Amino acid sequence: MSGPLHLFEGFGVELEYMIVDRDTLDVLPIADQVLREVAGEYVSDVEQGEITWSNELALHVIELKTTGPAATLAGLVEPFQRNVRQINQILARLGGRLMPSGMHPWMDPHSQLRLWPHDYSPVYEAFNRIFDCRGHGWANLQSVHLNLPFANDDEFGRLHAAIRVLLPLLPALAASSPIVDGRPRGTLDSRLDFYRDNARRIPSVTGGVIPEPVFTIAEYRQQILERMYADIRPLDPGGDLQDEFLNARGTIARFVRNTLEIRVLDVAECPAADLAICALVVAVLRELVEQRWSDAARQRSWQVEPLRQILLATIRDADRAPISDREYLALFGYTGPVPVTAGQLWNHLAASVAPAWLEADPDWTTPRRTLLEQGPLARRILAEVGDGASLERIAVAYRQLCECLQDGRMFGCGER
After folding, report:
1. pLDDT at residue 122 is higher than 50
2. Residue 129 structural domain
3. Average pLDDT over the chain, rounded to an integer
4. Is 36 a member of any domain?
5. Where are the alpha helices (DSSP H) in 44-169?
Protein backbone atom coordinates (compact mmCIF):
# COMPACT_ATOMS: atom_id res chain seq x y z
CA MET A 1 0.00 0.00 0.00
CA SER A 2 1.56 3.32 -1.08
CA GLY A 3 1.54 6.40 1.13
CA PRO A 4 0.96 6.57 4.88
CA LEU A 5 -1.50 4.19 6.44
CA HIS A 6 -4.69 5.68 7.82
CA LEU A 7 -6.30 4.80 11.13
CA PHE A 8 -6.64 1.04 11.62
CA GLU A 9 -5.30 0.20 8.16
CA GLY A 10 -2.30 -1.62 9.62
CA PHE A 11 -1.10 -3.18 12.84
CA GLY A 12 2.32 -3.85 14.31
CA VAL A 13 2.54 -6.36 17.15
CA GLU A 14 5.65 -7.12 19.23
CA LEU A 15 5.79 -9.94 21.80
CA GLU A 16 8.70 -10.24 24.25
CA TYR A 17 9.66 -13.51 25.95
CA MET A 18 12.26 -14.60 28.50
CA ILE A 19 14.83 -17.25 27.68
CA VAL A 20 15.26 -19.54 30.69
CA ASP A 21 17.23 -22.65 31.56
CA ARG A 22 15.18 -25.70 30.61
CA ASP A 23 15.76 -27.42 33.97
CA THR A 24 16.04 -24.64 36.56
CA LEU A 25 13.96 -21.93 34.79
CA ASP A 26 16.62 -19.37 35.77
CA VAL A 27 17.17 -16.66 33.17
CA LEU A 28 19.53 -17.73 30.41
CA PRO A 29 21.25 -14.82 28.58
CA ILE A 30 21.69 -16.36 25.14
CA ALA A 31 19.40 -14.38 22.81
CA ASP A 32 22.43 -13.58 20.65
CA GLN A 33 23.16 -17.29 20.22
CA VAL A 34 19.59 -17.94 19.08
CA LEU A 35 19.83 -15.24 16.41
CA ARG A 36 23.26 -16.48 15.35
CA GLU A 37 21.91 -20.02 14.91
CA VAL A 38 19.67 -18.69 12.13
CA ALA A 39 21.77 -15.87 10.64
CA GLY A 40 25.21 -17.47 10.96
CA GLU A 41 26.54 -14.37 12.73
CA TYR A 42 25.62 -12.05 15.56
CA VAL A 43 22.77 -9.84 14.35
CA SER A 44 19.98 -7.92 16.06
CA ASP A 45 17.17 -9.00 13.71
CA VAL A 46 16.28 -12.10 11.73
CA GLU A 47 13.36 -11.99 9.30
CA GLN A 48 11.34 -15.20 9.17
CA GLY A 49 8.66 -14.26 6.67
CA GLU A 50 5.72 -12.58 8.41
CA ILE A 51 7.55 -12.56 11.75
CA THR A 52 10.94 -11.09 12.70
CA TRP A 53 13.04 -12.09 15.71
CA SER A 54 14.87 -9.27 17.51
CA ASN A 55 17.08 -8.60 20.48
CA GLU A 56 16.24 -6.43 23.47
CA LEU A 57 18.29 -4.61 26.11
CA ALA A 58 18.58 -7.72 28.31
CA LEU A 59 20.38 -10.68 26.77
CA HIS A 60 17.83 -13.15 28.14
CA VAL A 61 14.92 -11.52 26.27
CA ILE A 62 13.94 -12.10 22.66
CA GLU A 63 11.20 -10.34 20.73
CA LEU A 64 8.91 -11.64 18.01
CA LYS A 65 7.25 -8.97 15.87
CA THR A 66 5.33 -8.55 12.66
CA THR A 67 7.89 -7.93 9.93
CA GLY A 68 5.82 -5.09 8.51
CA PRO A 69 2.37 -3.66 9.22
CA ALA A 70 -0.23 -6.43 9.09
CA ALA A 71 -3.47 -5.55 7.31
CA THR A 72 -5.46 -7.28 10.07
CA LEU A 73 -4.84 -8.91 13.43
CA ALA A 74 -6.89 -11.90 12.35
CA GLY A 75 -4.72 -14.79 11.23
CA LEU A 76 -1.60 -13.73 13.15
CA VAL A 77 -1.85 -16.38 15.87
CA GLU A 78 -0.52 -19.16 13.66
CA PRO A 79 2.67 -17.41 12.44
CA PHE A 80 3.51 -16.15 15.92
CA GLN A 81 2.90 -19.59 17.42
CA ARG A 82 4.97 -21.28 14.71
CA ASN A 83 7.89 -18.98 15.42
CA VAL A 84 7.63 -19.61 19.16
CA ARG A 85 8.07 -23.31 18.45
CA GLN A 86 10.97 -22.68 16.07
CA ILE A 87 12.80 -20.71 18.74
CA ASN A 88 12.08 -23.40 21.30
CA GLN A 89 13.58 -25.98 18.94
CA ILE A 90 16.79 -23.96 18.80
CA LEU A 91 16.76 -23.39 22.55
CA ALA A 92 16.33 -27.11 23.23
CA ARG A 93 19.79 -27.64 21.73
CA LEU A 94 21.17 -24.86 23.92
CA GLY A 95 19.56 -26.03 27.15
CA GLY A 96 16.84 -23.40 27.24
CA ARG A 97 13.20 -22.64 26.56
CA LEU A 98 10.92 -19.61 26.29
CA MET A 99 8.94 -18.42 29.29
CA PRO A 100 5.97 -16.03 29.06
CA SER A 101 4.56 -13.46 31.52
CA GLY A 102 5.52 -9.88 32.32
CA MET A 103 8.30 -10.65 34.83
CA HIS A 104 10.50 -13.53 35.83
CA PRO A 105 9.23 -14.68 39.25
CA TRP A 106 12.60 -14.95 41.02
CA MET A 107 15.26 -13.27 38.86
CA ASP A 108 17.80 -11.15 40.74
CA PRO A 109 18.31 -8.26 38.30
CA HIS A 110 21.29 -6.86 40.22
CA SER A 111 23.39 -9.96 39.68
CA GLN A 112 21.82 -11.64 36.63
CA LEU A 113 21.38 -8.84 34.09
CA ARG A 114 23.54 -9.16 30.98
CA LEU A 115 23.20 -6.34 28.45
CA TRP A 116 23.07 -7.03 24.70
CA PRO A 117 26.77 -6.76 23.74
CA HIS A 118 26.67 -6.48 19.94
CA ASP A 119 25.46 -3.86 17.45
CA TYR A 120 23.36 -1.13 19.05
CA SER A 121 25.14 -1.80 22.35
CA PRO A 122 26.21 1.89 22.79
CA VAL A 123 22.54 2.76 23.24
CA TYR A 124 22.06 0.11 25.92
CA GLU A 125 25.28 1.13 27.61
CA ALA A 126 24.07 4.73 27.68
CA PHE A 127 20.79 3.67 29.29
CA ASN A 128 22.77 1.68 31.86
CA ARG A 129 25.19 4.53 32.57
CA ILE A 130 22.42 7.06 33.12
CA PHE A 131 19.65 4.99 34.72
CA ASP A 132 21.48 1.88 36.08
CA CYS A 133 19.58 -0.95 34.44
CA ARG A 134 20.30 -3.40 37.26
CA GLY A 135 16.74 -3.30 38.52
CA HIS A 136 13.44 -4.97 37.77
CA GLY A 137 12.19 -1.96 35.78
CA TRP A 138 14.89 -2.46 33.14
CA ALA A 139 16.23 -6.00 33.51
CA ASN A 140 13.09 -7.98 34.24
CA LEU A 141 10.10 -7.05 32.15
CA GLN A 142 8.37 -8.46 29.07
CA SER A 143 5.55 -6.67 27.31
CA VAL A 144 3.40 -6.49 24.21
CA HIS A 145 3.73 -3.44 22.00
CA LEU A 146 0.81 -2.59 19.72
CA ASN A 147 1.56 -0.10 16.93
CA LEU A 148 -1.35 1.77 15.31
CA PRO A 149 -0.87 4.11 12.34
CA PHE A 150 -1.98 7.67 11.68
CA ALA A 151 -1.68 9.49 8.37
CA ASN A 152 -1.91 13.14 9.38
CA ASP A 153 -2.29 15.59 12.24
CA ASP A 154 -6.03 15.09 12.60
CA GLU A 155 -5.72 11.32 12.83
CA PHE A 156 -2.87 11.63 15.31
CA GLY A 157 -4.98 13.79 17.62
CA ARG A 158 -8.03 11.56 17.46
CA LEU A 159 -6.04 8.39 18.09
CA HIS A 160 -3.91 9.87 20.86
CA ALA A 161 -7.01 11.11 22.69
CA ALA A 162 -8.66 7.68 22.48
CA ILE A 163 -5.58 5.77 23.64
CA ARG A 164 -4.97 8.12 26.58
CA VAL A 165 -8.39 7.47 28.13
CA LEU A 166 -8.22 3.71 27.52
CA LEU A 167 -4.69 3.19 28.91
CA PRO A 168 -5.78 3.00 32.58
CA LEU A 169 -7.98 -0.01 31.83
CA LEU A 170 -5.39 -2.12 30.02
CA PRO A 171 -3.76 -3.79 33.07
CA ALA A 172 -7.19 -5.18 33.95
CA LEU A 173 -6.95 -7.27 30.77
CA ALA A 174 -3.24 -7.92 30.49
CA ALA A 175 -1.62 -7.98 33.96
CA SER A 176 0.63 -11.04 34.17
CA SER A 177 3.31 -10.15 36.73
CA PRO A 178 2.06 -10.81 40.27
CA ILE A 179 5.18 -12.61 41.56
CA VAL A 180 8.55 -10.93 42.10
CA ASP A 181 11.60 -12.02 44.08
CA GLY A 182 10.04 -15.43 44.68
CA ARG A 183 6.76 -14.33 46.26
CA PRO A 184 3.47 -12.60 45.46
CA ARG A 185 4.04 -8.87 45.61
CA GLY A 186 0.48 -7.71 46.24
CA THR A 187 0.45 -6.00 42.83
CA LEU A 188 -0.96 -7.83 39.83
CA ASP A 189 0.90 -5.73 37.27
CA SER A 190 4.26 -5.46 39.01
CA ARG A 191 6.00 -4.91 35.66
CA LEU A 192 4.19 -1.61 35.18
CA ASP A 193 4.70 -0.67 38.80
CA PHE A 194 8.48 -0.98 38.38
CA TYR A 195 8.39 0.46 34.85
CA ARG A 196 6.71 3.71 35.87
CA ASP A 197 9.61 4.52 38.18
CA ASN A 198 12.61 3.22 36.25
CA ALA A 199 13.61 6.61 34.77
CA ARG A 200 13.12 8.61 37.99
CA ARG A 201 16.50 10.30 37.50
CA ILE A 202 14.92 12.20 34.59
CA PRO A 203 11.16 12.32 35.28
CA SER A 204 10.23 13.73 31.86
CA VAL A 205 11.24 10.42 30.22
CA THR A 206 8.24 8.56 31.64
CA GLY A 207 6.05 11.41 32.85
CA GLY A 208 2.99 9.98 34.56
CA VAL A 209 2.93 6.99 32.15
CA ILE A 210 -0.30 8.54 30.89
CA PRO A 211 0.86 10.96 28.15
CA GLU A 212 0.21 14.67 28.43
CA PRO A 213 -2.96 15.99 26.71
CA VAL A 214 -1.36 17.11 23.45
CA PHE A 215 -3.16 16.43 20.21
CA THR A 216 -1.06 17.85 17.39
CA ILE A 217 2.28 16.58 16.12
CA ALA A 218 3.94 19.96 16.63
CA GLU A 219 2.73 20.18 20.25
CA TYR A 220 3.91 16.64 20.91
CA ARG A 221 7.37 17.34 19.58
CA GLN A 222 7.67 20.57 21.56
CA GLN A 223 6.04 19.62 24.86
CA ILE A 224 7.18 16.00 25.18
CA LEU A 225 10.11 15.12 22.94
CA GLU A 226 12.11 18.35 23.04
CA ARG A 227 11.68 18.72 26.80
CA MET A 228 12.84 15.14 27.32
CA TYR A 229 15.87 15.60 25.05
CA ALA A 230 16.82 18.82 26.84
CA ASP A 231 16.57 17.16 30.24
CA ILE A 232 18.82 14.24 29.30
CA ARG A 233 21.36 16.20 27.26
CA PRO A 234 23.73 16.99 30.17
CA LEU A 235 24.01 13.24 30.89
CA ASP A 236 24.08 12.21 27.22
CA PRO A 237 26.56 14.52 25.50
CA GLY A 238 26.99 12.08 22.61
CA GLY A 239 23.27 12.14 21.85
CA ASP A 240 22.91 8.34 21.96
CA LEU A 241 19.49 8.54 23.62
CA GLN A 242 18.06 11.70 22.06
CA ASP A 243 15.60 9.81 19.91
CA GLU A 244 11.93 8.81 20.02
CA PHE A 245 12.78 5.48 21.67
CA LEU A 246 13.81 7.34 24.85
CA ASN A 247 10.14 8.14 25.49
CA ALA A 248 8.79 5.71 28.10
CA ARG A 249 5.17 6.80 28.40
CA GLY A 250 2.41 4.23 28.23
CA THR A 251 1.95 5.11 24.60
CA ILE A 252 4.61 6.84 22.54
CA ALA A 253 4.62 8.54 19.18
CA ARG A 254 6.93 6.96 16.61
CA PHE A 255 6.96 9.66 13.95
CA VAL A 256 9.66 7.76 12.06
CA ARG A 257 6.90 5.33 11.07
CA ASN A 258 3.77 7.41 11.83
CA THR A 259 2.44 5.17 14.57
CA LEU A 260 1.38 5.38 18.17
CA GLU A 261 2.85 2.49 20.15
CA ILE A 262 0.93 1.18 23.16
CA ARG A 263 3.36 -0.22 25.74
CA VAL A 264 1.40 -1.00 28.92
CA LEU A 265 0.37 -4.57 28.06
CA ASP A 266 2.15 -7.40 29.90
CA VAL A 267 2.85 -10.37 27.64
CA ALA A 268 0.41 -13.24 28.24
CA GLU A 269 0.79 -17.02 28.19
CA CYS A 270 0.54 -17.54 24.43
CA PRO A 271 0.17 -15.51 21.23
CA ALA A 272 -3.54 -16.29 20.99
CA ALA A 273 -4.13 -14.54 24.31
CA ASP A 274 -2.04 -11.50 23.35
CA LEU A 275 -3.69 -11.12 19.97
CA ALA A 276 -7.18 -11.51 21.46
CA ILE A 277 -6.33 -8.71 23.90
CA CYS A 278 -4.92 -6.53 21.11
CA ALA A 279 -8.02 -7.13 19.00
CA LEU A 280 -10.34 -6.11 21.83
CA VAL A 281 -8.26 -2.99 22.48
CA VAL A 282 -8.42 -2.08 18.79
CA ALA A 283 -12.19 -2.68 18.64
CA VAL A 284 -12.74 -0.32 21.59
CA LEU A 285 -10.35 2.29 20.19
CA ARG A 286 -12.25 2.29 16.90
CA GLU A 287 -15.45 3.17 18.74
CA LEU A 288 -13.74 5.89 20.74
CA VAL A 289 -12.19 7.43 17.63
CA GLU A 290 -15.57 7.32 15.91
CA GLN A 291 -17.12 9.01 19.00
CA ARG A 292 -19.69 6.27 19.57
CA TRP A 293 -19.90 6.80 23.33
CA SER A 294 -18.27 10.20 23.86
CA ASP A 295 -17.22 13.08 21.66
CA ALA A 296 -13.63 14.05 20.94
CA ALA A 297 -13.77 17.13 23.15
CA ARG A 298 -14.70 15.06 26.22
CA GLN A 299 -11.93 12.58 25.47
CA ARG A 300 -9.38 15.36 25.08
CA SER A 301 -10.43 17.11 28.28
CA TRP A 302 -8.87 14.52 30.59
CA GLN A 303 -5.71 15.59 32.35
CA VAL A 304 -2.94 13.18 33.37
CA GLU A 305 -3.61 12.90 37.11
CA PRO A 306 -7.18 11.50 37.18
CA LEU A 307 -6.25 8.96 34.52
CA ARG A 308 -3.07 8.09 36.42
CA GLN A 309 -5.06 7.38 39.58
CA ILE A 310 -7.23 4.86 37.73
CA LEU A 311 -4.09 3.31 36.22
CA LEU A 312 -2.53 2.92 39.67
CA ALA A 313 -5.65 1.10 40.81
CA THR A 314 -5.56 -1.36 37.89
CA ILE A 315 -1.80 -1.86 38.30
CA ARG A 316 -2.52 -2.97 41.86
CA ASP A 317 -5.81 -4.88 41.50
CA ALA A 318 -6.22 -5.43 37.73
CA ASP A 319 -9.75 -6.64 36.96
CA ARG A 320 -10.95 -6.07 40.54
CA ALA A 321 -9.96 -2.40 40.68
CA PRO A 322 -13.06 -0.33 41.55
CA ILE A 323 -13.95 2.64 39.36
CA SER A 324 -16.43 5.22 40.68
CA ASP A 325 -15.87 8.23 38.42
CA ARG A 326 -19.09 8.51 36.42
CA GLU A 327 -17.58 11.02 33.98
CA TYR A 328 -14.82 8.55 33.17
CA LEU A 329 -17.26 5.65 32.82
CA ALA A 330 -19.44 7.74 30.52
CA LEU A 331 -16.54 7.92 28.05
CA PHE A 332 -17.30 4.24 27.36
CA GLY A 333 -21.08 4.39 27.44
CA TYR A 334 -21.36 2.83 30.89
CA THR A 335 -24.36 4.12 32.88
CA GLY A 336 -24.84 1.30 35.41
CA PRO A 337 -24.26 1.27 39.17
CA VAL A 338 -20.96 2.40 40.68
CA PRO A 339 -18.45 1.46 41.77
CA VAL A 340 -17.92 -0.96 38.93
CA THR A 341 -14.82 -3.10 38.69
CA ALA A 342 -12.48 -2.74 35.75
CA GLY A 343 -13.29 -6.34 34.83
CA GLN A 344 -17.01 -5.60 34.74
CA LEU A 345 -16.33 -2.57 32.58
CA TRP A 346 -14.35 -4.75 30.15
CA ASN A 347 -17.28 -7.15 29.97
CA HIS A 348 -19.50 -4.19 29.10
CA LEU A 349 -17.06 -3.07 26.41
CA ALA A 350 -16.62 -6.58 25.02
CA ALA A 351 -20.38 -6.93 24.65
CA SER A 352 -20.55 -3.52 22.96
CA VAL A 353 -17.98 -4.45 20.30
CA ALA A 354 -18.81 -8.16 20.14
CA PRO A 355 -19.41 -8.61 16.39
CA ALA A 356 -16.20 -6.85 15.35
CA TRP A 357 -14.14 -8.70 17.94
CA LEU A 358 -15.62 -12.16 18.21
CA GLU A 359 -16.22 -13.03 14.59
CA ALA A 360 -12.84 -11.96 13.23
CA ASP A 361 -10.74 -14.97 14.27
CA PRO A 362 -11.78 -18.29 15.87
CA ASP A 363 -8.34 -18.48 17.54
CA TRP A 364 -9.54 -15.77 19.92
CA THR A 365 -12.59 -17.68 21.19
CA THR A 366 -11.02 -19.48 24.18
CA PRO A 367 -8.81 -16.52 25.18
CA ARG A 368 -11.87 -14.25 25.09
CA ARG A 369 -13.87 -16.53 27.36
CA THR A 370 -10.96 -17.02 29.77
CA LEU A 371 -10.08 -13.34 30.04
CA LEU A 372 -13.65 -12.18 30.61
CA GLU A 373 -14.68 -14.99 32.94
CA GLN A 374 -11.49 -15.69 34.90
CA GLY A 375 -9.54 -12.48 34.59
CA PRO A 376 -6.02 -11.67 33.41
CA LEU A 377 -3.15 -14.12 33.64
CA ALA A 378 -1.92 -12.60 36.92
CA ARG A 379 -5.20 -13.54 38.61
CA ARG A 380 -4.94 -17.10 37.33
CA ILE A 381 -1.29 -17.43 38.38
CA LEU A 382 -2.20 -16.43 41.94
CA ALA A 383 -5.07 -18.91 41.96
CA GLU A 384 -2.65 -21.64 40.89
CA VAL A 385 0.14 -21.01 43.39
CA GLY A 386 -2.21 -20.55 46.37
CA ASP A 387 -1.74 -18.60 49.57
CA GLY A 388 1.48 -20.34 50.62
CA ALA A 389 3.19 -19.58 47.33
CA SER A 390 6.31 -21.61 48.05
CA LEU A 391 9.11 -21.26 45.51
CA GLU A 392 8.55 -24.90 44.54
CA ARG A 393 4.89 -24.27 43.78
CA ILE A 394 5.74 -21.09 41.88
CA ALA A 395 8.23 -23.06 39.78
CA VAL A 396 5.56 -25.66 38.97
CA ALA A 397 3.18 -22.92 37.81
CA TYR A 398 5.78 -21.20 35.63
CA ARG A 399 6.82 -24.51 34.11
CA GLN A 400 3.17 -24.93 33.14
CA LEU A 401 3.29 -21.43 31.65
CA CYS A 402 6.25 -22.47 29.49
CA GLU A 403 4.21 -25.42 28.26
CA CYS A 404 1.21 -23.18 27.54
CA LEU A 405 3.44 -20.99 25.39
CA GLN A 406 4.83 -23.97 23.51
CA ASP A 407 1.38 -25.51 23.00
CA GLY A 408 -0.49 -22.28 22.31
CA ARG A 409 -3.11 -22.72 25.04
CA MET A 410 -4.49 -20.75 27.94
CA PHE A 411 -3.34 -21.11 31.53
CA GLY A 412 -5.66 -22.11 34.35
CA CYS A 413 -8.80 -22.76 32.32
CA GLY A 414 -9.07 -26.53 32.36
CA GLU A 415 -7.13 -27.05 29.12
CA ARG A 416 -4.07 -28.68 30.69
Report:
1. yes
2. 117-401
3. 95
4. no
5. 77-93, 109-112, 121-131, 136-139, 153-166
